[in-house]
């Protein structure tokens, strides 16, 4: 029976995956991978079986390696920013002018 990963190992992998997900230059990819990372780790957190937990952790570690490579490629070939991404800045300027 394999040893389940420690809580610190899980949190470390989670924060690394979130950081990498947020590094995508494309808005849609960035939002998708942040959402997917959070969903994946919610499922891992709910798991009670140590063998299944180890399997989920190893799958997430493999996904992290793919995610890292994908983020690098996306940064190289990222397109222009979308109007949705600039919305927060507009609201801040509008509130500051009044």
TrEMBL record:
Q: Name one Pfam family in it.
A: Complex1_LYR
Give any single GO term for biological process. Answer: iron-sulfur cluster assembly
Q: Which residues form the signal peptide?
A: none
Query: Where exactly are the transmembrane stretches of this chain?
Result: none
Entry GO terms, CC: L-cysteine desulfurase complex; mitochondrion
Q: Where is the Complex 1 LYR protein domain?
A: 12-64
Domain of life the protein comes from: Eukaryota
Q: Which PANTHER family match?
A: LYR MOTIF-CONTAINING PROTEIN 4, PROTEIN C6ORF149
Q: Which family does it belong to?
A: Belongs to the complex I LYR family.
Q: What is this protein called?
A: Complex 1 LYR protein domain-containing protein
What's the source species for this entry?
A: Piloderma croceum (strain F 1598)
The lineage is: Eukaryota, Fungi, Dikarya, Basidiomycota, Agaricomycotina
